[in-house]
Specification:
By secondary structure, this protein is α+β, with helices and mostly antiparallel strands. Helix content is 30%, strand content 10%. This is Choline dehydrogenase 5.
């Protein structure tokens, strides 16, 4: 519970204000501002040296007590009566009309509406005023250290005209070496002779020094001579170190008062640099001297949070008049992007924004002027972008200003390489932009929606189709996310997708992933799928059954017809292919290496795949199998494995460093630490089990 005002006063050693609030006070002091203006002078009178922070805390506590003790709190009738009485006494109206309680409000002065800041720009060719050392000294005021209180005052006699420049330079160098914080140099007009009883207020600026200004006299108060003098911090007097009583060997650090101030008291305070600037009426303005849009000068509207300036008519939509209060420019109000942009796919012109209407004049005004026609805005560009780390399903439109602010280099490069006056033509990634596409759109409404939203901007349909689910993880909320490999895209384009993404066949591939884990690791994933809000009827829809146990067939036995597991694929081997399969099986059983040297086009790939598939289906070898093939035939090998060995989990180990790193970390094993992560290749741990590849074929190039 907050402390009361009496407790705060007693804790801080302050004198409390003993004032009894009357009924009229409760009616008049209706807000904190009026209460503070009334009570602050009373508190300050009792406690002249109270800090501002403690003053505000005490006023807040007293306002809480005042509001809690208000007997008229919540009584609208009493407040209305008090307001009517105050209005009658002020205006001195004889006749009073009955007023409703809801319409009576205390008469408060209208606040002054401040317009937004404006300036007269001079154009882009005008150089901004260079900051003087005084400005830099002002900015570093918070880190100011105590400087030596030396000053070089006027000399006792005027310098002769015949003195050589060498003597002057030598004398100035000697004086400069005396102190690194000198305040002025010897000048001919600063002797100060013959004016003992008269104080002169001077300001001297070094033309080639540090720009230090002072109100102090430039001669010693005791001997009336110039030279190396020390300045008093509480009066304009100055002294030699040897003229003080007692003498000082070096200038004191920190604030120092002269003997006169210590004896008579402080009667003078030096003006601060900020106070002098306020008195002179000069205000530093860092805003641009030209419009950010058209690069021209004139009357500019200045942003309150950045140096940008704009013409009213250069904004989009244009402003009819100077707005009230603080105004933020479009750059400061631009929303940030949701991620890093990887690629700009397309851009279009958008409709101009709706114009802003000016403030309408009052209807009862006798000389009401009709408002001017609102200025119309101009069309803006919007860009269709692909986000880094996200799939093509997350592509969306962003504004031109967002790209200019958050991806300046990418936006400038895109401007240089493309025509920014006419949007580019639609780029159908599938290359199917003839009559076939029209027929498919008429038959498939979903394809028509996808083409309008994605395909016509250069995105291939295969890039949005799932190839397989590689891994899974849970976030802090317990929601599952899957690492998805997309068709026709390399492994470095794999993305993490949430479990509730609306993607065609997403649940089918998700179920295949969990079934594969259950088959390889022996995990029971049914409870996990139930926890992930999967319906019971969908748990076994795509359940992968374990292959039936077949009796071990002697590999030396010759097949007269193709085996049953080849019949389930729907393919038929030629007689010479079946003979090649028997020869490969017999050679493997005898431990002989073989070379299948048929002519091109006779199906050597099919014979090899069926041979490996027979070893797995008959229980002779669980794998994994390693196939090394040329890059030009990799796609054909993948297609034939999918056709003739549907139970194989095929991994194509190819691509750049990032792609191969993703394969090693997510495809070789379900164990998290089976292989050390990173782009550098490491051996798999000996105790790690290659569970993902127990029924797989890996292509190593």
């Amino acid at each position: 519970e907050p402390k009361s005002s009496a407790q705060l006063m007693e804790e801080w050693g302050l004198d409390d204000v003993d004032y009894a609030f009357s009924e009229e006070d409760y009616h008049m002091l209706t807000n904190y501002k009026a209460f503070s203006q009334f009570l602050r002078p009373l508190v300050a009178k009792q406690n002249p040296k109270i800090p501002m922070s403690k003053m505000m805390t005490v006023l807040g506590a007293k306002w809480r007590e005042f509001s809690a003790n208000n007997p008229f709190k919540g009584s609208s009738a009493a407040a209305a009566a008090a307001a009517i009485a105050a209005a009658v006494e002020t205006v001195a109206v004889a006749a009073a009309a009955p007023l409703s309680t809801s319409a009576a409000q205390p008469l408060m002065p209208q606040p002054v509406i401040r317009k937004a800041k404006t300036k007269e720009g001079k154009g882009p060719g005008v150089r901004k005023k260079m900051k003087t050392p005084k400005d830099s000294k002002k900015k570093g005021k918070g880190k100011k250290v105590a400087s030596l209180k030396f000053r070089f005052g006027g000399l006792a006699s005027k310098r002769k005209k015949g003195s050589s420049s060498e003597e002057e330079e030598r004398e100035e160098s000697d004086l400069d070496s005396a102190s690194i914080h000198s305040s002025s140099l010897p000048s001919k007009s600063s002797a100060g002779l013959g004016k003992k009883g008269k104080r002169r207020k001077k300001k001297k600026r070094l033309e080639d020094g540090d720009g230090y200004e002072t109100d102090h006299q430039d001669y010693c108060e005791v001997c009336q001579q110039g030279g190396e003098i020390i300045l008093c911090d509480t009066c304009p007097r100055a002294y030699h170190l040897v003229c003080l009583d007692p003498e000082l060997e070096k200038a004191p650090e920190g604030k120092w008062s002269c003997p006169h101030c210590e004896k008579e008291g402080i009667q003078w305070e030096p003006k601060d640099e900020e106070e002098e600037e306020e008195e002179s009426g000069e205000e530093e303005d860092d805003h641009m001297e030209f419009c950010r849009v058209c690069k021209d000068g004139g009357e500019l509207l200045c942003c309150d949070t950045c140096p940008s300036s704009y013409h009213l008519h250069c904004l989009n939509p244009p402003l009819p008049e100077i707005p009230n209060g603080e105004w933020l420019c479009p750059r400061c109000t631009c929303p940030p992007l949701k991620g890093k942009v990887q690629r700009i796919l397309h851009w279009v012109w958008t409709e101009p924004p709706a114009p802003l209407a000016s403030a309408l004049p009052s209807a009862d005004s006798e000389f009401a002027i009709p408002p001017p026609m609102p200025l119309e805005g101009i069309p803006e560009r919007e860009f269709f972008v692909k986000w880094a780390g996200l799939s093509y399903w997350h592509c969306c439109w962003v504004k031109e200003l967002q790209l200019e602010l958050y991806h300046t280099v990418m936006f400038r490069n895109f401007q240089r390489k493309n025509d920014m006056d006419e949007p580019p033509a639609f780029d159908y990634g599938s290359g199917d932009e003839d009559g076939k596409s029209e027929k498919r759109k008429n038959k498939d409404p979903l394809y028509a929606q996808m083409e309008e939203k994605f395909y016509r901007y250069g995105i291939k349909p295969e890039w949005m189709m799932i190839h397989r689910v590689l891994n899974h993880s849970f976030d802090k909320k317990g929601d599952v996310h899957y690492l998805v490999k997309w068709k026709d895209l390399s492994y470095d384009q794999c993305t993490w997708e949430s479990g509730d993404m609306d993607i065609p066949d997403y649940e089918h591939f998700e179920q295949q992933y969990w079934n594969h884990r259950e088959m390889m690791l022996g995990e029971d994933t049914s409870c996990l799928l139930k926890r992930l809000n999967k319906k019971e009827k969908n748990l076994n829809n795509d359940k992968l059954e374990r292959p039936p146990k077949t009796p071990v067939v002697d590999p030396t036995v010759k097949f007269d017809k193709q085996p049953w597991y080849i019949d389930t694929t729907g393919g038929t081997l030629h007689p010479y292919q079946l003979e090649g399969l028997n020869w490969l099986r017999f050679s493997w059983a005898q431990g002989m290496d073989t070379i299948l040297a048929d002519e091109m086009g006779l199906g050597k790939t099919v014979q090899t795949i069926v041979f490996l598939y027979s070893l797995y289906k008959e229980g002779h070898s669980k794998g994994p199998y390693l196939v090394s093939a040329p890059l030009s035939t990799i796609i054909n090998w993948e297609r034939e494995f999918e056709m003739w060995a549907p139970d194989f989990y095929v991994v194509t180990y190819t691509g750049d460093k990032e792609s191969r790193s993703v394969i090693r970390e997510n495809e070789f094993s379900f164990e998290d630490n089976a292989i050390r992560t990173g782009k550098k290749v490491f051996r798999m741990k000996k105790e790690a089990q290659i569970v993902k590849s127990s029924t797989s074929c890996s292509h190593l190039l």
